[in-house]
Amino acid sequence: MALYVQKFGGTSVGSVERIKAVAEKVKGFRDQGHQIVVVLSAMSGETNRLIGLANEINDEPTPREMDMLVSTGEQVTISLLAMALHKLGVPATSYTGSQVGILTDSSHTKARIQRIETDEMREDLDDNKVVVVAGFQGVDEEGNITTLGRGGSDTTGVALAAALKADECQIYTDVDGVYTTDPRVCSKAQRLDTITVEEMLELASLGSKVLQIRAVEFAGKYNVPLRVLSSFQDGPGTLIVADSDQDEDSMEEPLISGIAFTANEAKLTLLNTPDVPGVASRILGPIADANIEVDMIVQNVAPAGDYTDFTFTVAKGDYKQTMKILQEQVLPDLGEGEVKGDDNIAKVSLVGVGMRSHAGVASKMFRVLADENVNIRMVSTSEIKISVVIDEKHMELAVKALHKAFGLDKSDIESE
Ligand code: ASP
Ligand code: MG
Question: Which UniProt keywords apply (predicted)?
Answer without folding.
Answer: Amino-acid biosynthesis, ATP-binding, Kinase, Lysine biosynthesis, Nucleotide-binding, Transferase
